Recover the amino acids of this structure.
Protein backbone atom coordinates (compact mmCIF):
# COMPACT_ATOMS: atom_id res chain seq x y z
CA UNK A 1 0.00 0.00 0.00
CA UNK A 2 2.72 2.39 1.02
CA UNK A 3 4.88 1.81 -2.04
CA UNK A 4 1.81 2.12 -4.20
CA UNK A 5 1.06 5.68 -3.09
CA UNK A 6 4.71 6.62 -3.60
CA UNK A 7 4.69 5.58 -7.24
CA UNK A 8 1.23 6.98 -7.93
CA UNK A 9 1.74 9.89 -10.31
CA UNK A 10 -1.55 11.54 -9.47
CA UNK A 11 -0.63 12.07 -5.84
CA UNK A 12 0.64 15.67 -5.77
CA UNK A 13 1.96 15.77 -2.22
CA UNK A 14 4.55 13.06 -2.86
CA UNK A 15 5.88 14.61 -6.06
CA UNK A 16 5.56 18.28 -5.28
CA UNK A 17 8.76 19.32 -7.06
CA UNK A 18 8.07 17.21 -10.10
CA UNK A 19 4.53 18.58 -10.35
CA UNK A 20 5.76 22.16 -10.04
CA UNK A 21 8.33 21.55 -12.76
CA UNK A 22 5.62 20.09 -14.96
CA UNK A 23 3.34 23.11 -14.46
CA UNK A 24 6.25 25.40 -15.36
CA UNK A 25 6.88 23.36 -18.49
CA UNK A 26 3.24 23.57 -19.54
CA UNK A 27 3.22 27.31 -18.92
CA UNK A 28 6.29 27.70 -21.11
CA UNK A 29 4.32 26.03 -23.91
CA UNK A 30 1.55 28.59 -23.35
CA UNK A 31 3.97 31.47 -23.79
CA UNK A 32 5.60 29.83 -26.78
CA UNK A 33 2.31 29.40 -28.58
CA UNK A 34 1.14 32.91 -27.72
CA UNK A 35 4.37 34.30 -29.18
CA UNK A 36 3.98 32.33 -32.41
CA UNK A 37 0.38 33.54 -32.68
CA UNK A 38 1.44 37.14 -32.15
CA UNK A 39 4.12 36.82 -34.79
CA UNK A 40 1.61 35.39 -37.25
CA UNK A 41 -0.77 38.32 -36.68
CA UNK A 42 2.06 40.86 -36.92
CA UNK A 43 3.23 39.33 -40.17
CA UNK A 44 -0.16 39.93 -41.81
CA UNK A 45 -0.79 43.33 -40.26
CA UNK A 46 2.69 44.69 -40.83
CA UNK A 47 2.71 43.60 -44.46
CA UNK A 48 -0.56 45.43 -45.04
CA UNK A 49 0.65 48.47 -43.12
CA UNK A 50 3.90 48.69 -45.09
CA UNK A 51 2.00 48.30 -48.35
CA UNK A 52 -0.43 51.00 -47.33
CA UNK A 53 2.28 53.41 -46.19
CA UNK A 54 4.18 52.81 -49.43
CA UNK A 55 1.07 53.69 -51.44
CA UNK A 56 0.43 56.77 -49.34
CA UNK A 57 4.02 57.99 -49.74
CA UNK A 58 4.03 57.36 -53.48
CA UNK A 59 0.64 58.91 -54.06
CA UNK A 60 1.07 61.79 -51.64
CA UNK A 61 1.28 64.56 -54.29
CA UNK A 62 -2.19 63.67 -55.57
CA UNK A 63 -4.10 63.94 -52.30
CA UNK A 64 -6.05 67.09 -53.09
CA UNK A 65 -9.59 67.95 -54.06
CA UNK A 66 -8.65 68.34 -57.68
CA UNK A 67 -7.76 64.66 -57.88
CA UNK A 68 -11.41 63.88 -57.08
CA UNK A 69 -12.95 66.49 -59.33
CA UNK A 70 -10.91 65.96 -62.51
CA UNK A 71 -11.57 63.53 -65.32
CA UNK A 72 -8.75 61.29 -66.49
CA UNK A 73 -6.34 63.04 -68.77
CA UNK A 74 -3.35 62.34 -70.99
CA UNK A 75 -1.28 64.46 -68.65
CA UNK A 76 -0.77 62.67 -65.36
CA UNK A 77 -0.61 65.85 -63.31
CA UNK A 78 -4.13 66.93 -64.23
CA UNK A 79 -5.70 63.44 -64.40
CA UNK A 80 -8.33 62.76 -61.73
CA UNK A 81 -10.70 60.19 -60.36
CA UNK A 82 -14.04 61.86 -60.95
CA UNK A 83 -15.50 59.38 -63.43
CA UNK A 84 -14.04 56.46 -61.44
CA UNK A 85 -15.47 57.27 -58.02
CA UNK A 86 -18.85 58.27 -59.45
CA UNK A 87 -18.84 55.02 -61.42
CA UNK A 88 -17.93 53.01 -58.31
CA UNK A 89 -20.66 54.71 -56.31
CA UNK A 90 -23.35 54.02 -58.91
CA UNK A 91 -22.23 50.42 -59.46
CA UNK A 92 -22.20 49.80 -55.70
CA UNK A 93 -25.69 51.25 -55.49
CA UNK A 94 -27.01 48.75 -58.04
CA UNK A 95 -25.08 45.96 -56.29
CA UNK A 96 -26.60 46.87 -52.94
CA UNK A 97 -30.14 47.03 -54.30
CA UNK A 98 -29.90 43.63 -55.95
CA UNK A 99 -27.73 41.60 -53.59
CA UNK A 100 -29.22 42.61 -50.24
CA UNK A 101 -32.90 41.80 -50.76
CA UNK A 102 -32.13 38.61 -52.70
CA UNK A 103 -29.37 37.45 -50.36
CA UNK A 104 -31.24 38.12 -47.13
CA UNK A 105 -34.46 36.54 -48.41
CA UNK A 106 -32.57 33.51 -49.66
CA UNK A 107 -30.80 33.11 -46.33
CA UNK A 108 -34.05 33.49 -44.42
CA UNK A 109 -35.79 30.98 -46.62
CA UNK A 110 -33.01 28.41 -46.40
CA UNK A 111 -32.77 28.72 -42.63
CA UNK A 112 -36.42 29.11 -41.67
CA UNK A 113 -38.65 27.67 -44.36
CA UNK A 114 -36.79 25.19 -46.56
CA UNK A 115 -37.44 21.57 -45.62
CA UNK A 116 -34.29 19.88 -44.40
CA UNK A 117 -33.54 17.18 -46.98
CA UNK A 118 -30.86 16.22 -49.50
CA UNK A 119 -31.97 19.01 -51.81
CA UNK A 120 -31.46 21.75 -49.24
CA UNK A 121 -28.12 20.16 -48.34
CA UNK A 122 -27.15 20.36 -52.00
CA UNK A 123 -28.12 24.03 -52.13
CA UNK A 124 -26.15 24.70 -48.97
CA UNK A 125 -23.00 23.10 -50.37
CA UNK A 126 -23.41 25.01 -53.61
CA UNK A 127 -23.89 28.36 -51.91
CA UNK A 128 -20.76 27.80 -49.84
CA UNK A 129 -18.86 26.81 -52.96
CA UNK A 130 -20.06 29.87 -54.85
CA UNK A 131 -18.31 32.06 -52.28
CA UNK A 132 -15.05 30.48 -53.38
CA UNK A 133 -15.51 30.72 -57.15
CA UNK A 134 -12.84 33.00 -58.70
CA UNK A 135 -14.34 36.36 -59.50
CA UNK A 136 -13.28 36.24 -63.15
CA UNK A 137 -15.70 33.34 -63.62
CA UNK A 138 -18.50 35.67 -62.56
CA UNK A 139 -17.19 38.08 -65.16
CA UNK A 140 -17.46 35.43 -67.86
CA UNK A 141 -20.95 34.51 -66.72
CA UNK A 142 -21.97 38.17 -66.78
CA UNK A 143 -20.46 38.66 -70.23
CA UNK A 144 -22.56 35.80 -71.58
CA UNK A 145 -25.72 36.46 -69.59
CA UNK A 146 -26.03 40.21 -69.04
CA UNK A 147 -23.97 41.72 -71.85
CA UNK A 148 -24.95 39.43 -74.72
CA UNK A 149 -27.85 37.31 -73.45
CA UNK A 150 -29.98 40.09 -72.02
CA UNK A 151 -28.37 42.79 -74.14
CA UNK A 152 -27.61 45.09 -71.23
CA UNK A 153 -24.30 46.09 -72.74
CA UNK A 154 -21.17 47.19 -70.96
CA UNK A 155 -23.17 49.30 -68.56
CA UNK A 156 -23.41 50.27 -64.92
CA UNK A 157 -26.40 47.94 -64.62
CA UNK A 158 -24.36 44.98 -65.89
CA UNK A 159 -21.49 45.73 -63.52
CA UNK A 160 -23.84 46.19 -60.56
CA UNK A 161 -25.65 42.94 -61.25
CA UNK A 162 -22.36 41.09 -61.71
CA UNK A 163 -20.94 42.29 -58.42
CA UNK A 164 -24.33 41.61 -56.84
CA UNK A 165 -24.07 37.97 -57.93
CA UNK A 166 -20.51 37.88 -56.67
CA UNK A 167 -21.35 38.96 -53.14
CA UNK A 168 -24.66 37.09 -52.94
CA UNK A 169 -23.05 34.01 -51.32
CA UNK A 170 -21.33 36.19 -48.72
CA UNK A 171 -24.65 37.76 -47.76
CA UNK A 172 -26.52 34.43 -47.77
CA UNK A 173 -23.92 32.73 -45.59
CA UNK A 174 -23.69 35.59 -43.09
CA UNK A 175 -27.49 35.81 -42.92
CA UNK A 176 -27.77 32.11 -42.20
CA UNK A 177 -25.03 32.19 -39.61
CA UNK A 178 -26.53 35.06 -37.69
CA UNK A 179 -29.96 33.40 -37.80
CA UNK A 180 -28.45 30.18 -36.52
CA UNK A 181 -26.91 32.04 -33.58
CA UNK A 182 -30.39 32.74 -32.19
CA UNK A 183 -30.93 30.25 -29.36
CA UNK A 184 -33.63 27.61 -29.75
CA UNK A 185 -35.06 28.70 -26.39
CA UNK A 186 -35.91 32.16 -27.76
CA UNK A 187 -37.71 30.69 -30.76
CA UNK A 188 -39.62 28.25 -28.60
CA UNK A 189 -40.57 31.08 -26.26
CA UNK A 190 -42.07 32.96 -29.19
CA UNK A 191 -43.92 29.94 -30.53
CA UNK A 192 -45.14 29.05 -27.04
CA UNK A 193 -47.17 32.26 -26.71
CA UNK A 194 -48.94 31.41 -29.95
CA UNK A 195 -46.90 33.20 -32.61
CA UNK A 196 -47.09 32.00 -36.20
CA UNK A 197 -43.96 31.29 -38.17
CA UNK A 198 -44.13 34.61 -39.96
CA UNK A 199 -44.54 36.46 -36.65
CA UNK A 200 -41.52 34.65 -35.23
CA UNK A 201 -39.47 35.53 -38.31
CA UNK A 202 -40.59 39.17 -38.40
CA UNK A 203 -40.52 39.97 -34.68
CA UNK A 204 -37.56 37.88 -33.60
CA UNK A 205 -35.43 36.18 -36.23
CA UNK A 206 -34.91 39.23 -38.43
CA UNK A 207 -34.57 41.62 -35.48
CA UNK A 208 -31.95 39.63 -33.62
CA UNK A 209 -29.91 38.73 -36.69
CA UNK A 210 -29.79 42.30 -38.06
CA UNK A 211 -26.30 42.95 -36.72
CA UNK A 212 -24.78 39.88 -38.35
CA UNK A 213 -26.63 40.42 -41.62
CA UNK A 214 -25.50 44.03 -41.77
CA UNK A 215 -21.91 43.00 -41.15
CA UNK A 216 -22.11 40.49 -43.99
CA UNK A 217 -23.62 43.10 -46.29
CA UNK A 218 -20.91 45.67 -45.60
CA UNK A 219 -18.09 43.15 -45.92
CA UNK A 220 -19.62 41.97 -49.19
CA UNK A 221 -19.87 45.54 -50.43
CA UNK A 222 -16.28 46.33 -49.55
CA UNK A 223 -15.22 43.24 -51.45
CA UNK A 224 -17.27 44.40 -54.43
CA UNK A 225 -15.62 47.82 -54.28
CA UNK A 226 -12.19 46.37 -54.91
CA UNK A 227 -13.17 43.77 -57.51
CA UNK A 228 -11.44 44.31 -60.84
CA UNK A 229 -11.38 41.08 -62.81
CA UNK A 230 -15.13 40.63 -63.47
CA UNK A 231 -15.50 44.29 -64.41
CA UNK A 232 -12.67 44.02 -66.92
CA UNK A 233 -14.20 40.83 -68.29
CA UNK A 234 -17.52 42.47 -69.02
CA UNK A 235 -15.55 45.13 -70.85
CA UNK A 236 -15.63 48.27 -68.75
CA UNK A 237 -13.83 51.13 -70.45
CA UNK A 238 -10.69 52.43 -68.88
CA UNK A 239 -10.76 55.97 -70.17
CA UNK A 240 -14.02 57.75 -69.41
CA UNK A 241 -14.01 61.51 -69.59
CA UNK A 242 -17.71 62.05 -68.91
CA UNK A 243 -20.20 61.35 -66.14
CA UNK A 244 -23.26 59.14 -66.55
CA UNK A 245 -26.56 61.04 -66.75
CA UNK A 246 -27.61 62.14 -63.28
CA UNK A 247 -30.10 59.82 -61.56
CA UNK A 248 -31.95 62.82 -60.16
CA UNK A 249 -33.30 65.55 -62.43
CA UNK A 250 -34.84 68.91 -61.77
CA UNK A 251 -37.95 68.24 -63.83
CA UNK A 252 -40.70 65.69 -63.18
CA UNK A 253 -40.53 62.71 -62.60
CA UNK A 254 -37.22 63.76 -60.99
CA UNK A 255 -35.78 60.28 -61.48
CA UNK A 256 -33.79 59.25 -64.48
CA UNK A 257 -32.71 55.71 -65.21
CA UNK A 258 -30.50 56.41 -68.23
CA UNK A 259 -27.43 56.21 -66.01
CA UNK A 260 -28.02 52.48 -65.69
CA UNK A 261 -27.11 51.89 -69.31
CA UNK A 262 -24.23 54.34 -69.37
CA UNK A 263 -20.65 53.20 -69.82
CA UNK A 264 -18.48 53.66 -66.81
CA UNK A 265 -15.23 53.03 -65.07
CA UNK A 266 -14.56 52.18 -61.44
CA UNK A 267 -11.72 52.91 -59.01
CA UNK A 268 -9.74 49.67 -59.33
CA UNK A 269 -9.94 49.80 -63.13
CA UNK A 270 -8.75 53.38 -63.19
CA UNK A 271 -5.89 52.31 -60.97
CA UNK A 272 -5.09 49.36 -63.21
CA UNK A 273 -5.14 51.63 -66.24
CA UNK A 274 -2.71 54.14 -64.74
CA UNK A 275 -0.46 51.42 -63.49
CA UNK A 276 -0.12 49.87 -66.94
CA UNK A 277 1.25 53.08 -68.43
CA UNK A 278 5.00 53.44 -68.86
CA UNK A 279 5.12 57.04 -67.61
CA UNK A 280 6.12 57.07 -63.94
CA UNK A 281 3.94 60.12 -63.27
CA UNK A 282 0.85 57.96 -63.76
CA UNK A 283 2.11 55.49 -61.20
CA UNK A 284 1.73 58.25 -58.60
CA UNK A 285 -1.94 58.48 -59.55
CA UNK A 286 -2.27 54.72 -59.27
CA UNK A 287 -0.69 54.68 -55.82
CA UNK A 288 -2.99 57.42 -54.61
CA UNK A 289 -6.03 55.52 -55.94
CA UNK A 290 -4.85 52.35 -54.21
CA UNK A 291 -4.51 54.15 -50.91
CA UNK A 292 -8.00 55.61 -51.32
CA UNK A 293 -9.51 52.18 -52.04
CA UNK A 294 -7.85 50.76 -48.93
CA UNK A 295 -9.07 53.64 -46.76
CA UNK A 296 -12.65 53.30 -48.02
CA UNK A 297 -12.55 49.53 -47.47
CA UNK A 298 -11.20 49.95 -43.94
CA UNK A 299 -13.83 52.58 -43.21
CA UNK A 300 -16.59 50.24 -44.41
CA UNK A 301 -15.29 47.34 -42.34
CA UNK A 302 -14.89 49.64 -39.34
CA UNK A 303 -18.51 50.72 -39.74
CA UNK A 304 -19.52 47.06 -39.87
CA UNK A 305 -17.75 46.33 -36.59
CA UNK A 306 -19.18 49.43 -34.94
CA UNK A 307 -22.73 48.64 -36.11
CA UNK A 308 -22.46 45.06 -34.97
CA UNK A 309 -21.28 46.18 -31.55
CA UNK A 310 -24.08 48.72 -31.31
CA UNK A 311 -26.81 46.29 -32.34
CA UNK A 312 -25.51 43.33 -30.36
CA UNK A 313 -25.04 45.37 -27.20
CA UNK A 314 -28.58 44.60 -26.10
CA UNK A 315 -28.46 40.95 -27.08
CA UNK A 316 -26.67 38.50 -24.86
CA UNK A 317 -26.34 34.87 -25.84
CA UNK B 1 -56.98 9.24 -2.53
CA UNK B 2 -58.23 11.01 -5.61
CA UNK B 3 -61.53 12.73 -5.14
CA UNK B 4 -63.78 11.64 -7.97
CA UNK B 5 -65.76 14.87 -7.96
CA UNK B 6 -62.80 17.14 -8.86
CA UNK B 7 -63.38 18.36 -12.43
CA UNK B 8 -60.86 17.27 -15.05
CA UNK B 9 -59.33 20.05 -17.19
CA UNK B 10 -57.47 17.85 -19.64
CA UNK B 11 -56.49 14.22 -20.00
CA UNK B 12 -54.18 12.18 -22.15
CA UNK B 13 -55.56 8.93 -23.48
CA UNK B 14 -53.19 6.17 -24.50
CA UNK B 15 -50.65 8.78 -25.58
CA UNK B 16 -47.64 7.52 -27.51
CA UNK B 17 -44.93 9.74 -28.86
CA UNK B 18 -42.20 8.99 -31.39
CA UNK B 19 -39.19 11.22 -32.08
CA UNK B 20 -38.08 11.61 -35.69
CA UNK B 21 -35.29 9.06 -35.15
CA UNK B 22 -37.93 6.46 -34.30
CA UNK B 23 -37.44 6.46 -30.53
CA UNK B 24 -40.66 5.77 -28.73
CA UNK B 25 -40.47 8.28 -25.89
CA UNK B 26 -43.97 7.84 -24.44
CA UNK B 27 -45.73 4.52 -24.05
CA UNK B 28 -49.48 4.63 -23.73
CA UNK B 29 -49.85 7.36 -21.14
CA UNK B 30 -53.36 7.84 -19.79
CA UNK B 31 -53.57 10.50 -17.14
CA UNK B 32 -55.89 13.33 -16.04
CA UNK B 33 -55.01 16.92 -15.15
CA UNK B 34 -57.46 18.17 -12.54
CA UNK B 35 -58.78 21.68 -12.83
CA UNK B 36 -57.10 24.31 -10.64
CA UNK B 37 -54.66 21.73 -9.33
CA UNK B 38 -50.93 21.31 -9.72
CA UNK B 39 -49.85 18.02 -11.22
CA UNK B 40 -46.16 17.19 -10.93
CA UNK B 41 -44.24 14.82 -13.19
CA UNK B 42 -41.26 13.16 -11.56
CA UNK B 43 -38.84 10.52 -12.73
CA UNK B 44 -35.18 10.05 -13.64
CA UNK B 45 -33.60 11.87 -16.62
CA UNK B 46 -34.79 10.56 -19.94
CA UNK B 47 -38.01 9.08 -18.56
CA UNK B 48 -40.12 11.16 -20.94
CA UNK B 49 -41.59 13.68 -18.52
CA UNK B 50 -40.50 16.73 -20.53
CA UNK B 51 -41.57 14.99 -23.72
CA UNK B 52 -45.01 14.45 -22.19
CA UNK B 53 -45.25 18.07 -21.05
CA UNK B 54 -44.29 19.39 -24.48
CA UNK B 55 -47.08 17.38 -26.11
CA UNK B 56 -49.56 19.70 -24.39
CA UNK B 57 -48.58 22.76 -26.41
CA UNK B 58 -47.51 20.80 -29.48
CA UNK B 59 -43.92 22.03 -29.15
CA UNK B 60 -42.82 18.84 -30.89
CA UNK B 61 -44.48 20.11 -34.06
CA UNK B 62 -41.64 22.60 -34.50
CA UNK B 63 -39.29 19.77 -35.41
CA UNK B 64 -40.08 17.66 -38.45
CA UNK B 65 -40.61 13.93 -38.17
CA UNK B 66 -42.02 13.78 -34.65
CA UNK B 67 -45.22 11.79 -34.34
CA UNK B 68 -48.05 11.61 -31.80
CA UNK B 69 -50.47 8.74 -31.31
CA UNK B 70 -53.45 8.83 -29.01
CA UNK B 71 -55.31 11.82 -27.67
CA UNK B 72 -55.09 14.75 -25.32
CA UNK B 73 -58.63 15.90 -24.61
CA UNK B 74 -59.30 19.40 -23.30
CA UNK B 75 -62.43 19.95 -21.23
CA UNK B 76 -65.10 21.24 -21.24
CA UNK B 77 -65.07 21.48 -25.05
CA UNK B 78 -63.73 17.95 -25.62
CA UNK B 79 -61.20 19.08 -28.21
CA UNK B 80 -58.48 16.59 -28.99
CA UNK B 81 -55.55 18.98 -29.21
CA UNK B 82 -53.41 16.39 -30.99
CA UNK B 83 -55.91 16.12 -33.81
CA UNK B 84 -54.48 17.01 -37.22
CA UNK B 85 -57.34 19.41 -37.75
CA UNK B 86 -56.40 21.43 -34.67
CA UNK B 87 -53.79 24.09 -35.36
CA UNK B 88 -50.89 24.05 -32.89
CA UNK B 89 -51.13 27.86 -32.72
CA UNK B 90 -54.67 27.51 -31.36
CA UNK B 91 -53.43 25.02 -28.76
CA UNK B 92 -50.62 27.36 -27.68
CA UNK B 93 -53.11 30.17 -27.28
CA UNK B 94 -54.95 28.08 -24.69
CA UNK B 95 -51.96 26.41 -23.02
CA UNK B 96 -48.88 28.48 -22.19
CA UNK B 97 -45.46 27.36 -21.10
CA UNK B 98 -42.59 28.38 -18.84
CA UNK B 99 -39.21 26.92 -19.71
CA UNK B 100 -36.33 25.45 -17.79
CA UNK B 101 -33.97 28.37 -18.23
CA UNK B 102 -35.44 31.88 -18.18
CA UNK B 103 -35.75 32.84 -21.83
CA UNK B 104 -36.94 36.43 -22.09
CA UNK B 105 -36.78 38.09 -25.50
CA UNK B 106 -34.05 40.70 -25.95
CA UNK B 107 -36.74 43.35 -25.68
CA UNK B 108 -38.07 45.56 -22.93
CA UNK B 109 -39.83 44.13 -19.88
CA UNK B 110 -43.07 45.59 -21.19
CA UNK B 111 -42.70 44.12 -24.67
CA UNK B 112 -41.89 40.69 -23.25
CA UNK B 113 -45.18 40.55 -21.38
CA UNK B 114 -47.15 42.19 -24.17
CA UNK B 115 -45.84 39.92 -26.92
CA UNK B 116 -48.45 37.19 -26.48
CA UNK B 117 -51.17 39.81 -26.82
CA UNK B 118 -49.51 41.44 -29.80
CA UNK B 119 -49.45 38.17 -31.76
CA UNK B 120 -53.18 38.01 -31.11
CA UNK B 121 -53.50 41.39 -32.84
CA UNK B 122 -54.02 43.46 -29.70
CA UNK B 123 -52.56 46.92 -30.31
CA UNK B 124 -54.71 49.11 -28.08
CA UNK B 125 -52.21 50.85 -25.79
CA UNK B 126 -54.55 51.13 -22.79
CA UNK B 127 -55.63 47.53 -23.07
CA UNK B 128 -52.00 46.38 -23.32
CA UNK B 129 -50.95 48.55 -20.36
CA UNK B 130 -53.69 47.04 -18.21
CA UNK B 131 -52.91 43.49 -19.24
CA UNK B 132 -49.17 43.90 -18.72
CA UNK B 133 -49.73 45.34 -15.25
CA UNK B 134 -52.16 42.58 -14.37
CA UNK B 135 -49.79 39.85 -15.58
CA UNK B 136 -46.78 41.34 -13.79
CA UNK B 137 -48.83 41.57 -10.60
CA UNK B 138 -49.94 37.99 -11.09
CA UNK B 139 -46.29 36.99 -11.42
CA UNK B 140 -45.36 38.95 -8.25
CA UNK B 141 -42.98 41.12 -10.24
CA UNK B 142 -44.90 44.37 -10.58
CA UNK B 143 -43.46 46.14 -7.55
CA UNK B 144 -39.91 45.43 -8.64
CA UNK B 145 -40.25 46.59 -12.23
CA UNK B 146 -43.11 49.10 -12.40
CA UNK B 147 -40.70 52.04 -12.68
CA UNK B 148 -38.56 50.52 -15.40
CA UNK B 149 -40.91 48.75 -17.76
CA UNK B 150 -38.91 49.97 -20.76
CA UNK B 151 -35.65 48.49 -19.43
CA UNK B 152 -34.20 45.46 -21.17
CA UNK B 153 -35.39 42.17 -19.71
CA UNK B 154 -31.79 40.93 -19.63
CA UNK B 155 -31.00 43.43 -16.89
CA UNK B 156 -33.20 41.52 -14.44
CA UNK B 157 -31.83 38.83 -12.15
CA UNK B 158 -32.35 35.17 -13.02
CA UNK B 159 -35.29 34.77 -10.65
CA UNK B 160 -36.89 37.98 -11.89
CA UNK B 161 -36.41 36.85 -15.48
CA UNK B 162 -38.21 33.60 -14.72
CA UNK B 163 -41.09 35.51 -13.11
CA UNK B 164 -41.12 37.72 -16.20
CA UNK B 165 -41.48 34.58 -18.31
CA UNK B 166 -44.37 33.53 -16.07
CA UNK B 167 -45.94 36.97 -16.58
CA UNK B 168 -45.50 36.55 -20.33
CA UNK B 169 -47.23 33.18 -20.16
CA UNK B 170 -49.94 34.59 -17.91
CA UNK B 171 -50.78 37.69 -19.94
CA UNK B 172 -52.83 35.71 -22.45
CA UNK B 173 -55.15 34.16 -19.84
CA UNK B 174 -54.26 30.54 -20.55
CA UNK B 175 -56.34 27.65 -19.28
CA UNK B 176 -53.34 25.48 -18.52
CA UNK B 177 -49.76 26.51 -17.76
CA UNK B 178 -46.88 24.13 -18.35
CA UNK B 179 -43.69 24.43 -16.29
CA UNK B 180 -40.63 22.54 -17.51
CA UNK B 181 -38.31 22.39 -14.47
CA UNK B 182 -38.88 26.10 -13.87
CA UNK B 183 -36.47 26.46 -10.95
CA UNK B 184 -33.55 24.27 -11.97
CA UNK B 185 -31.48 27.31 -13.01
CA UNK B 186 -32.36 29.39 -9.93
CA UNK B 187 -31.01 29.84 -6.41
CA UNK B 188 -33.03 28.66 -3.37
CA UNK B 189 -34.61 32.06 -2.63
CA UNK B 190 -35.73 32.60 -6.21
CA UNK B 191 -36.97 28.99 -6.19
CA UNK B 192 -39.08 29.63 -3.10
CA UNK B 193 -40.59 32.72 -4.79
CA UNK B 194 -41.52 30.75 -7.89
CA UNK B 195 -43.01 27.92 -5.86
CA UNK B 196 -45.13 30.32 -3.86
CA UNK B 197 -46.24 31.95 -7.08
CA UNK B 198 -47.25 28.61 -8.59
CA UNK B 199 -49.38 27.80 -5.55
CA UNK B 200 -51.21 31.10 -6.03
CA UNK B 201 -51.61 30.64 -9.78
CA UNK B 202 -53.48 27.43 -9.09
CA UNK B 203 -56.53 29.52 -8.26
CA UNK B 204 -56.65 30.85 -11.81
CA UNK B 205 -55.54 27.94 -13.92
CA UNK B 206 -54.42 24.34 -14.11
CA UNK B 207 -50.72 23.58 -13.79
CA UNK B 208 -48.57 20.74 -15.07
CA UNK B 209 -45.00 20.87 -13.82
CA UNK B 210 -41.96 18.73 -14.57
CA UNK B 211 -39.46 18.67 -11.76
CA UNK B 212 -36.21 16.95 -10.97
CA UNK B 213 -36.58 17.87 -7.38
CA UNK B 214 -38.79 15.46 -5.43
CA UNK B 215 -39.07 17.76 -2.44
CA UNK B 216 -40.39 20.38 -4.77
CA UNK B 217 -43.03 18.02 -6.10
CA UNK B 218 -43.99 17.13 -2.53
CA UNK B 219 -44.14 20.80 -1.52
CA UNK B 220 -46.18 22.29 -4.32
CA UNK B 221 -48.20 19.67 -6.15
CA UNK B 222 -51.64 18.22 -5.53
CA UNK B 223 -51.09 15.20 -7.73
CA UNK B 224 -47.91 13.44 -8.73
CA UNK B 225 -47.10 11.13 -11.60
CA UNK B 226 -44.00 8.96 -11.54
CA UNK B 227 -42.67 8.10 -14.97
CA UNK B 228 -39.94 5.70 -15.96
CA UNK B 229 -38.67 4.86 -19.45
CA UNK B 230 -41.64 6.49 -21.15
CA UNK B 231 -44.22 4.74 -19.03
CA UNK B 232 -46.50 6.09 -16.37
CA UNK B 233 -45.65 3.92 -13.36
CA UNK B 234 -47.92 5.48 -10.81
CA UNK B 235 -50.28 8.41 -10.55
CA UNK B 236 -51.99 9.50 -7.37
CA UNK B 237 -52.45 12.45 -5.07
CA UNK B 238 -49.12 13.73 -3.86
CA UNK B 239 -49.53 12.63 -0.24
CA UNK B 240 -50.20 9.07 -1.26
CA UNK B 241 -47.28 8.95 -3.70
CA UNK B 242 -44.84 10.20 -1.10
CA UNK B 243 -46.14 8.30 1.93
CA UNK B 244 -47.74 5.07 0.72
CA UNK B 245 -46.88 4.48 -2.93
CA UNK B 246 -48.53 1.35 -4.21
CA UNK B 247 -45.72 0.41 -6.61
CA UNK B 248 -42.33 -0.81 -5.50
CA UNK B 249 -40.56 1.20 -8.28
CA UNK B 250 -42.10 4.45 -7.07
CA UNK B 251 -41.05 3.78 -3.52
CA UNK B 252 -37.49 2.99 -4.61
CA UNK B 253 -37.30 6.25 -6.55
CA UNK B 254 -38.74 8.56 -3.91
CA UNK B 255 -36.67 7.02 -1.15
CA UNK B 256 -33.54 7.51 -3.21
CA UNK B 257 -32.68 3.83 -3.67
CA UNK B 258 -32.74 4.46 -7.37
CA UNK B 259 -32.39 7.33 -9.83
Amino acid sequence: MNTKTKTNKASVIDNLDAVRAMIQRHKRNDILFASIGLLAIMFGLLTLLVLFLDLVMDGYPRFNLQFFSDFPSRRAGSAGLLSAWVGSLLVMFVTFLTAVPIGVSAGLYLEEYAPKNWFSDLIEINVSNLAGVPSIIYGLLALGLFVYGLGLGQSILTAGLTLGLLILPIIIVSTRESIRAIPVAIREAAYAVGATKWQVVRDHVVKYSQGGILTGVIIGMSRALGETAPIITIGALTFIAFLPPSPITTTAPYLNFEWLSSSFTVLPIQMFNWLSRPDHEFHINAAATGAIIIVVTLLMNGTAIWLRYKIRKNIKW
Amino acid sequence: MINATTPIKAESRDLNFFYSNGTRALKGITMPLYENKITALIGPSGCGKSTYLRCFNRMHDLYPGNKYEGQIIMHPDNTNILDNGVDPIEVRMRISMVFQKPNPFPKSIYENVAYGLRVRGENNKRMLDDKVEEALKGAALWNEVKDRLQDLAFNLSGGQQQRLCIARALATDPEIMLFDEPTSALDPIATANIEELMSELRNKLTILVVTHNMQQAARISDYTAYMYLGELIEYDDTDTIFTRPSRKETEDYITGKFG
